[in-house]
Design goal:
homodimer; alpha/beta; 4-stranded mixed beta sheet; 8 helices; 17 strands
Amino acid sequence: MTKLAVVAFGGNALLRAGQRGTIDEQEANVTETCTHVARLIEKGYNLVIGHGNGPQVGNILLQNQAGFEVHGVPEMPLDVCGAYSQGLIGYIIEQQLRNVLEAMNLDRDILTLVTQVLVDKNDPAFQNPTKPIGPYYTQEVADQKAAASGDVFKEDPKGKGWRKVVASPVPKVIGNRKSIEKLAREGAIVVCVGGGGIPVFYPEPKKLQGIDAVIDKDLASSLLATQINADEFYILTDVPKVYINFRKPDEKALNVVTIAEAKQYLAEGHFTEGSMAPKVRAAIYFVENGGKECIITDAGELGKDNAGTRIVK
Amino acid sequence: MTKLAVVAFGGNALLRAGQRGTIDEQEANVTETCTHVARLIEKGYNLVIGHGNGPQVGNILLQNQAGFEVHGVPEMPLDVCGAYSQGLIGYIIEQQLRNVLEAMNLDRDILTLVTQVLVDKNDPAFQNPTKPIGPYYTQEVADQKAAASGDVFKEDPKGKGWRKVVASPVPKVIGNRKSIEKLAREGAIVVCVGGGGIPVFYPEPKKLQGIDAVIDKDLASSLLATQINADEFYILTDVPKVYINFRKPDEKALNVVTIAEAKQYLAEGHFTEGSMAPKVRAAIYFVENGGKECIITDAGELGKDNAGTRIVK
């Protein structure tokens, strides 16, 4: 039976350090990542692709703020900016992957879905928003905006100013998960859950609504992999393996890790928050909830024997 | 057998005269249109929804220009701005339609697809670009930009300044048309081909690429309806029927029109360019290429007996 895999593109699949985010940069980066992902497709995998949107939605928020200042264009809320970014990034991935596959004479449909992800308004994350988004403001302007909107602003630790912060709640249900699974099992490659999905909730029964929040994209892809019963879950990053004692004299690359070991390494502080730690947590979530194995690796390693770090039961 | 229909949302489904385009305005307008569209779903139709993006992509272009001016955020080309708008509008339609259907206890999947549409680089439209897009510039700035980019700028007839103009080529192939048909025939409501689709072409074999152009959204929806073998094609607008001698003493609403009659009315200049004329042409295209009938009407008429103007063979 054909294996179904979810691949979560890392930030560097789209944008590299020092790049400003032109369309040419993003297309070239995506093409490179797709060249590697194509090896899984060549092996016959059914595939669903998730991706982040941090720098892109950051730019979109700046465009929104400037569009209002300069032209009076109404600013869109964060959930809608996330929808912009799903269109943007999904289009780039679909087009570049299509070109890569055509060059390899691989004929597969590629579909890009705008994806909403349900969160719980009672998630404790909403009591303590921590994710900074959008432009930097002076304390005075931030105070005015906070008073007018109820938004929360916090000072940047590096002193660059004050920024709005939002919650990062746990994703609960991936919108259209059944259709995503069906399409993928029928052979289509589905690009979805971009930026961790557009966070939505039910303010009242039968009424879905967007909410100011960001969902961790690895956790959302992990939930997706679980909810579509994927066999394997790949988390792409910019290192070939996960390390303990990273960048210390006794640094050690991990080949196979059980979830018990992974939890212990997490507790011992081996993995950086905001970087490797959420990826390892996403891997644990997948394997604890029925997944066979999660592979954390660099795209360049995909399809090779013993690629990356395998997190298993 | 269940009927398959394509419904092309009109501009007023999203934005009304005098509105600036806030998210609240757009959500309220879409909800109203979806309430009407739901009557077709209640009748058991399989449905694909297309939509325009004129005012939205206009705002996105202004946001892009201002984002570069104020923050140095790289400007995205028109095809990518179209992708932004598909995310934005698709998200709004999917969410509001879902809420409308849930309130009616109608259980249907709704999927929003980012859609590329193939055009021909040799389309004569590229020799004479006519569609103004984006910000107004002084003649001096427009000349500088034209020299730097090769873009074409034309003076606004009302004297508001100079704007970039792009081609409006004929759409040739709707991306993912087979998957769209399959999903819709299996009961999912598919939102796609937003803004007429993202125009793409092959600069070389096996290499798909975006191109600076806008595709007429009614024509793209008509091509979609043809290529997915839809039974009926609805073009929503802000009048209940098509009229000849519109707003003259001998104005007459049309109930049933053959394509021969429609062509004659077009030739006689009964329909305004940029408004009813492209809708009638889109209707003719559908019926001439195998469609049973096209209905041009106001959303409020949907599902009523003798609703709108029916264009038939």
